[in-house]
Design goal:
single chain; 17% strand; four-stranded mixed β-sheet; Rossmann fold; Ketopantoate reductase; eight-stranded mixed β-sheet; NAD(P)-bd_dom_sf
Amino acid sequence: MKEYENRVLIYGAGVIGSLYAVKLSACGCNVAVLARGSRLKELQEKGLLYYENGIKEARVRVISEITDQDKFDYIFLTVRAEQVITALEALRRNKSSTIITMVNTLEKYQNWENTAGKGRILPAFPGAGGSIENGILNAKLTPAIIQPTTFGEINGKKTDRVKQLKKLFAAAKVPVQIVPDMHVWQVCHLAMVVPLADAYYQAGKAPERVAWDKNSMKITAKRLKRNFNLLGQKGICLSPGKMKLICFLPVPLLACLLKYVYKSDFGNMFMYQHAMKAKEEMKLLHRDFYKYLKVH
C-alpha cells in the first residue's frame, strides 16, 4: 500500500466522518478522529469498526480535543449544520490551513470565514450514507453516477489544494466532482433532499413504508418539480445539469420512479437512514430553503 504523508483530522465521528476516516486511513493517511460523548467512549473501547467482507478495524487515532498547535493538512468537518459555527470557533486558532466543510448548508460561507479565518474554508458535500449499528459502521459511498463527493473553492478557482485533494480522494478510491459554485450546487441539492425527507416525516407512524403511499409519491414529485422550476425562474443554473430532467418529467412518471427509489436498498441506506437520524437538521434546512426561495 502506498503511504501518503497527509495528516488528516476528521472532526465528527458519525456515519460520514467515520466512513471518510476508513477510506483515508486505508490509503495510508495519518488519520485522527475527534469524537465526543458516547461515540468517543465507543471508539476508545472498540476502535473504529466497520463492515467490509466481515468486521474490520480502521487504523486511526481517536482523540477528544485538539490544541491550537496541532497541524493537519486537511480538517474534514463532518458535523450537522447547526453545529458548524461552534466547531469553527473551536478551530479558530488552530494552525491548520484547510477546513473541508462536508455539511448541508445554505450559507454563502462568509460567516464561516469570519469565524475560522479567510481562506481556510473549502466547501464540500459527502457522497455517502449508512448507519452505525452496535458500534460498527455499516456505510457506503454513493454511486458516482448519482452523487460523488463534491467540492470546490468559494471563488470557483481550481487551486493547487483542490487538485491535491482530488488526488488524495483518487488514492482513497473516493469518486469526486469539482464544481465552480458550491453555493449554487448546495441550493440545488436542498431543492431535492428537502422534499425527499419531508415525505418520510409526513408519513405518520410508518415512514419506512412511504413508497406504498401513491399520494405521498405524487406530492413529493410535485414538490421536486416546483422547487427546480422556481430556482430556474430565479436565474439559478441547476447544478448538476442532470437535475433539469426533473423539470421535464411528467408528475405520474416521476412519482413512479420515486416509488422505486424509496423502496430500494439505495433509498434505505442513503435516504431513509439519514432522514430518520437527522430530523432536527432537516427541519432547519426545510425552513431555511423555503425562506431562501421567497427572498431570492
